[in-house]
Amino acid sequence: MSCKDDNSYGHVLKYTGIFGGVQGLGIIAALVRNKAAALLLGPAGMGLASLFNTAANFMSQATSLGVSFSAVRHLSEIFDRGDAALTGRYVAVVRMWSAVAAVLGAAACLAAAPAVGRYVFDGGITLAEAAALAPVVAMIALTGGETAILKGARLLRGLAAAQVLTALASLVVAVPLYWAMGAAGIIPVLLLSTAAGLVVTARRSLAAFPLGLPGGGGLRRILAEGGGMVRLGLAFIVSGVVGSGAEMLVRSYLNTCADLATVGLYNAGYMITVTYAGMVFTAMETDYFPRLSAVNRHRAAVNLAANRQIEVSLLVISPMIVLMTAALPQLVPLLYSGRFAPVVPMAQVSLLSMYARAMMLPVAYITLAKGHSRAYMILETVSAAVLVGLMAACFGAWGLTGAGVAVLLANVFDLIVTFAYAALRYGYRPSRAVVMTAAVQVPLGAAAYIAASSGSVWVRLAVGIAATAASAGLSAYVIYKKTTLWEKIRRKVIKR
Fold first, then answer.
1. Cα dihedral sign for 444, 445, 451, 457?
2. How far, CA to CA in Å, does 430 sit from each of 43, 302, 306, 422?
3. Residue 281: which of 308, 233, 313 has the closest Cα?
4. Residue 5 — pLDDT band, cuts 50, 70, 90?
5. What is the C-alpha separation between 254 and 265, in angstroms, rounded?
6. CA 63 – CA 278 distance, rounded (Å)
7. How far is CA 463 from the centre of its chain?
């Protein structure tokens, strides 16, 4: 497939739809899991689970060597050459370094267990419970390597199937354990869910690339071939550690200044906005980043890929932002329980940050696709510092609603800095279509938020329905004009 075809509106929409749909299925499973957790564990229990997950992600980022991300760039370039032998050899390199990262991560978790228990959990867990993060981090590293192989070799349908199975397995594991064990089931759920993800992902990647060492060099030489990948990965590690560390600091700050229940409420709001509304962004790392990496030396192709990804992301996510903003007072008790109602104002203002994120992420990936790891590291560090500073200031001033304001301001800051840097270094310019789409869709979201903040149920519903209809209608019209999606749907209906 040519680069032009890869960056067509149809291709971008197709894979945004595929992985957005996969993420949607995962979200449905997460909704049931979170509903069970909310009812069985309460805000405090969900806060504890959030701290465990955040600590595991932080340790994973710190020890992963960046293999799960940097391997995609290198493998994509090799795969596009059509050299099957070289692709297979590099797959072995990725697996070797994933194994190294797994051992390193487990060892680091065991060594840091006393500090994690004392400082992250404020002494609220035992040493054994903190040490239980070691196998979780090791499995995350191995899963990351196999996922990178599927992405780099464009085995996206297999990856989509693995993600669906992982979400379903997590649901099947979590509900009965939370029901039977309560908060004591948090660690078993984390262990078993992570193991399920490793098994289903490895099954797909091993079917395409069987396990084994290629000829033509010993272990030392194979590891050396991954030097470039690891160098890019080391900068990605620093960026990931900074990002995960910022999230861990935010949750630890909330736990110290307030309590675990506040952490649980914040995490619920974060899930609703960044995770649920951000399901569209999954396609960026899965499909967009490999495509961008393949054309990273051509400025025009990079600009085309980035702008079309932004436009499609805005078209798909905008109606959902407007609808969720209006419906959150009803959705939150449904998704969690009535005890989570205080998070609604935070989630509503945080949702507006998804517009900025939809425009910022495709441009941020340009830096990684070009291998400019130091620049990416600096940008991520600045972003994390700004988020922590804004969170401390805004939460102190306005409580949970202030936390939502901090998320919004941090994402707007990221958008401005990322666009400015990409314009100066890479000559990136947003297309007219991007500007027009943002100029139409963002005000509709703002109108829905203002109506939701008015205090009148009828105003919120009337404006919310009208804005949702307008946003969805505009998105459908643009998709109709620029792709053959509706024609394909018509033909399928006629055939039936």
1. positive
2. 42, 11, 9, 10
3. 313
4. very low
5. 10
6. 26
7. 30
- Around Cβ 4, how many Cβ atoms within 10 Å? 10
Cα-atom radius of gyration of the chain, to the nearest Å? 22
At 20 the three-state DSSP class reads helix
- Which alpha helices (DSSP H) does 153-208 contain, by range? 156-181, 186-208
* Tokens (6 digits) for 68: 């799960």
Nearest partner of 318 among 209, 110, 185, 476, judged by Cα: 476
Q: Could you report the per-residue pLDDT of 341-360, keeping only the tens digit for each? A: 899 999 999 999 999 999 99
Residue 192 CA to residue 169 CA, distance in Å, equals 9
Specify the 3-state DSSP secondary structure of 152: helix
Place of tokens 């349908």: 157
Angle between helices 353-369 and 299-335 (to 10 degrees): 140
CA angle 116, 118, 121 (to 5 degrees): 70
In Å, how far are 34, 36, 181, 186, 271 from 337, measured between CA atoms? 10, 10, 20, 19, 15
- Assigned token pair, 264: 């649980």
> For residue 218, how many other CB atoms are within 10 A of its CB?
9
On whether the CB atoms of residues 474 and 441 are closer than 8 A, the answer is: yes
Tell me the C-alpha distance between 121 and 55, whole Å: 9
Q: Which residues contact 313 (CB under 8 A, 6 or more apart)?
A: 16, 280, 281, 284, 358, 359, 361, 362
- Distances in Å between the Cα of 165 and the Cα atoms of 19, 88, 369, 404 are 14, 26, 29, 32
As a whole-number percent, the residues of the chain with pLDDT over 90 amount to 35
Taking alpha carbons only, the member of 404, 270, 274 closest to residue 336 is 270
Q: Give CA–CA dist 48/185, Å, rounded.
A: 11
pLDDT in tens, 230-285: 776 676 677 767 877 788 788 888 888 888 788 888 888 887 787 666 667 765 66
Distance CA 355, CA 310 (A): 10
CA distance 413 to 411: 5
Tokens of 488: 């394909």
Q: Whose structure tokens read 């680091």?
A: 108
- Pairwise CA distance, residues 274 & 272, whole Å: 6
Q: With H, G, I as helix, E, B as strand and everything else as coil, classify residue 317.
A: helix
Q: Which two tokens stand for residue 213?
A: 């060492």
Buried b vs exposed e over 163-185: b needs ≥16 C-beta within 10 Å? bbbbbbbbbebbbebbeeeebeb
Rounded alpha-carbon distances, angstroms, from residue 443 to 104, 435, 438: 48, 13, 8
Residue 97: what residue type? W
Q: Is 76 left (phi over 0), alpha (psi -120 to 50) or beta?
A: alpha
- Torsion angle of C-alpha atoms 454, 456, 461, 462, degrees rounded to 10: -90
